[in-house]
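Sharing a chain and its predicted structure for anyone who wants a worked example. Both blocks are below, sequence first, tokens second.
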Amino acid sequence: VIEILQHARDTFVGTLRIDKDLAVLVTPGTLYTHDIIIPRKKLRGGKTGDKAVVKITQWPDADHKNVVGEVVDVIGPTGDNDVEMNTILAQYGLPYRYPKNVEEAANKITGEITPEDEKEREDFRNVFTCTIDPRDAKDFDDALSIRRAEDGKLWEVGVHIADVSHYVPEGSIIDREALKRSTSVYLVDRTIPMLPERLCNYICSLRPDEDKLAYSVIFTLNEKAEIQNWHLAHTVIRSNRRFTYEEVQQVLEAHHEASEEDYNSPGDHYEPLTPDAEPAEHFAKELIMLNRMAKELRRRRFAGGAIDFDRCEVRFEIDEKGKPTSVFFKVSKDANKLIEEFMLLANRTVAESIGKVAKGQKAKVFVYRIHDTPDPQKLMNLADFVGKFGYKLRTTGTKDDVSRNLNKLLREVKGRKEQNVVEMVSLRAMMKAKYSVQNVGHYGLAFRYYTHFTSPIRRYPDLMVHRLLTRYAEGGRSVGRDKYEELCEHCSEMEQTAAQAERSSIKYKQVEFMKDRLGEVFEGTISGVTEFGLYVEVNENKCEGMVPLRDLKDDYYEFDEKNFCLRGRATHHCYNLGDAVKIQVARADLFRKQLDYKLVRE
């Protein structure tokens, strides 16, 4: 390094340590060789053990070897759950407080629906409408309606999305804060919303038995879910019922409408009614019809080459102090997939309405959700890797050929010991989805046109899409390409940052959960192999930890990068990705969010 021209960041988060003559900020990991020195008069009341945000005031140079900074915010004492979660947000440069002036602006919005609003909108208040969300959800940004079409043979299905753009004008103080955040952030025990609480949980949220403004895609479908016609409309709706996923799943299973894999999945199941029984649950007939259509949409999507990455997610039960008490797995069942398919249909349809133009015409600038084709070299590496387990993956041919082969692989590994590791390595071979005005299609979904329209309460790109659709429907000119590409890049970056913070909060809770299990032995699977050791994921709770190379004392082990294994020089014993092992919990370091395991040999 000859010279440092510019510093990427100048604020850092860590733990204060205050001695008699000196105060320092201790940062996790190996961020700096030396801790950051803080003059005592620049501590802002911070005490030893407090988590704090420090701004660098002096970088090392020829005369000074130390990094010097000043405290800009004291987050609170180490170990407190709120403090630890806010520290994770601060580490990623994400806000952990909502600005008062933005909240005050939101509090002035009445949410009243005027006669003028009603006159300009289609009225769906007398159509059966429901929301289906997780049991702990507070912001309901999408709803479904269904009724028989006028001819009595077809169905009219409405995908109704909270009309956030009605309440948040472009360039307003609320809009500027929402753009800065770009997304709601979901940590293990809390949501840090993109919009002020009054908007996201009350005014915009499609709560039951309340009149709400929505932006809706209205489809006329036959029973095979084939679109006969559709239109986009600003609407007034009134949700009849707020369902949880579990309630809808109960209805589907009770009426023999759920998938076979749902009946066979672990967890609670529901006593089925007799085949000739009338639907007992209020609105069961509507839910059953929506589910049948969703299954048709899903079947066609996979037949068209969509990739089936259906991985379970780890969730923690948390007590009132934020301490994790148990682990459960979030598995996507038919109730989840019902909502997913109609949201995908709406997103694809509105994207096509702007992007798909007649030959010789130029499409107007729009915000697309794109997912590029995988890197050929990564695909070849994946084919080599799965070949070691006896699977074949075709890496040449059309996009559809490759995706169908990938789906075949994912089906073949289901239920086998190597399933988790093959799915993980396959995911790593994929490109990351992002936002752009340059449409290249969505490889994973096998859609030529795709956008995000369905979650404007928690994603800024959806709000941009609503505004663009309204502008173009009113005959407005195309917006500036460069400006919108810049906005897309910002939203993509914030999405990645939010995902990193979420993973960091999960890792913190995993370490906290396993801290109470020091010395206990668990069955696990090798989930990663590196030159410095093995990563092992515990089967029963998915908590991942490291077995350091230095602890493998029975041989001198070398890292074989090509074959994803550690190989003993004398014994030739191999530790491979996907191998079953027994581990003992050796160390749990909350400061560094690190778990260390020891291998237990039979």
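Comments welcome. DSSP finds 15 helices and 26 strands in the chain.
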